[in-house]
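Following the same procedure, backbone shapes were mapped to integers, yielding the entry below.
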Amino acid sequence: MTPAPAAPGPAAAPGTAAELRRAATRVLLGNWTGRSTVPSRGLYPHQWSWDSAFIAVGLRHLSPRRAQWELESMTAAQWADGRLPHIVFDPATPRGAYFPGPDFWRSAGAGAGANAETSGIVQPPVHAIAAWEVHRADPETSRRRGFLERVYPRLAAWHHYLARERDLGGAGLAAAVHPWESGMDNSPAWDAALARVAPAPADSFARRDLDHAPVADRPTDADYGRYVRLAADYRDHGYDDARAPHAFRVEDPSMNALLIAAEHALAAIAAELGGDAAAHSGRAAVLTKALVGTLYDPGARMFFARDLVTGAHIAEHTVAGLVPLIVPGLPVAADLVATARGPRFGIGQGRLVPSYDRTGHAFDPCRYWRGPGWFNMSWLVHRGLVLHGAADLAADLRTAMTAAAGRTGFAEYVDPHSGQARGARAFSWTAAVTLDLLAGEAA
């Protein structure tokens, strides 16, 4: 199927909620391929794992059935070991359109059991959260199509993979073995761990991201070389977590908080299907205790990643440390809200949540994950603020997000100070979470 052309961004910022909703709808329709939604037509021409989860949350307000298809297509690419790969490659897209592409990953011959051309690493487990929200949008259609019956075993196997293969630190938490797995690829939190990795030679790969985005917005060549080296080492060990050297291995608070929230969602799904909800609720409780006991720093009132090579916290204040607000019953929620309101993040001042400490030594308002505000992360923090009763901060953040989405043509991310658009435009998860926020305002 020939992809539809990308929808142009709005000529002027939408002036009303109805206009903003129509503009966001155009983005998602324009990025639909017939089986799934690409993040953007130029920079990201395939299906990305956690993008599809956020996209489904927005699509449920337009077409619950299409939102179900989004998650069904993503989970259908699951490997035999249970992992959900971070990219599912579109066979209709030229093989060299994105790097690293299918010829780099060579997943078809992987011993872990890929059933399609995909990458070999994973992304944060948002999928069960999205599946439950999609079901709730239209339970009748969901039940008639057997949506939850179809995706529940896949999602349970996905979580089982993380528990079985990725507890590399022994605390019960899931570890990321590549910065891309955290979703926050270029975060300053990974700098020290990446410094231990020798970059792949610059002439051994050709970057495609710089064809679509300014150099100042993207990771440096040296860091990109380290990403390639880590991915190649994992590939060359057959994506076997027990055999691979994992020069980069960290426990990320955002990844694990999302896993906890996803276990709560699986409990709701299991209850809907007449299954064992208590097993998932119990798993969520165990993970919450491990998250707080292992990654929370009471003095800093912040969650930090843990470097499993050194065993130490990575004391960099990033948005990942605020995402645990999405965890129900989080015992340190009040302190985390205070940190979010403080000078490092400045929530409540009419801006998106910066991806990195505004007062930090590595803050860069333009460069990928080193300062810019991202709509999906702000949506997660907004969800957590609502959950823990910080209504004033949540309302300010919702207003900032919807205004910035319309003003920037649904940018991938924005300068957290000026609000200037950065990265790609007509970005799918930006449009999707905007639709979700608008639906919440109307409720």
